């Protein structure tokens, strides 16, 4: 049963006959009930489903990252997670059906106009991931010393992610992250992006490459 909000002229939530009422970001909308189909999926549909699954299984576990990284992209029409899925399915999913894979160099966990950290470097030694970035040219970078640095390390073989316990700030210029023992001996994919304290200005994603985790 649907529930009318704000009187007879307001929106409603729930099911009423063949329609469903709902609200997203204070916008009331109505959609029809989905119809079940007995038709088998076409090859084109199967290909699209496989492409979507390939990127979705990567994006969904890192939802807190893309909630920040895509917070300013089409914010009035879609969620940050959906924006991230849409952006990545077009460029980061490669290969041929059914063997789709991710091109890690093209994965985006953020989009925006804030300048990233200039010369960004990363290396691994004795179980420590060490990352550095430029914090001198703030005026050129159009950033602030208290911008947060969001770091994401992915271990494909384990299908696990790692980040700093707390996002460091741009002004620090460097951060060391201790790697868990079970990460060692494998290879990791590394990305980072910058965001101001209010998450209103976001940088594009920096891909730092594949690292030997030693």
Main features:
214 residues; alpha+beta; four-stranded antiparallel beta sheet
> In CATH terms, what is the architecture of the largest domain?
Sandwich
Task: Give a short account of the largest sheet.
Answer: 4 strands, antiparallel
Overall radius of gyration:
21 Å
Q: Average pLDDT, to the nearest integer? A: 87
What is the topology, as strand order, of the major beta sheet? 1-2-3-4
The general outline is globular
Q: What are the low-pLDDT stretches, counting only 5+ consecutive residues below 50?
A: none
Number of strands: 13
CATH superfamily of the largest domain: Immunoglobulins
What fraction of the residues are assigned to beta strands by DSSP? 25-35%
Residue share in helices? 10-25%
What is the N-to-C order of secondary-structure elements (H for helix, E for strand)? EEEEHHHEEEEHEEEEE
At CATH level 3, the topology of the largest domain is Immunoglobulin-like
- Counting H and I runs of at least 4 residues, what is the number of helices? 4
- Give the CA-CA distance, first to last residue: 59 Å
Quick recap:
19% of the residues lie in helices and 32% in strands. The protein is an alpha+beta fold and 214 residues long. It has a four-stranded antiparallel β-sheet with strand order 1-2-3-4, with no helix packed on it.
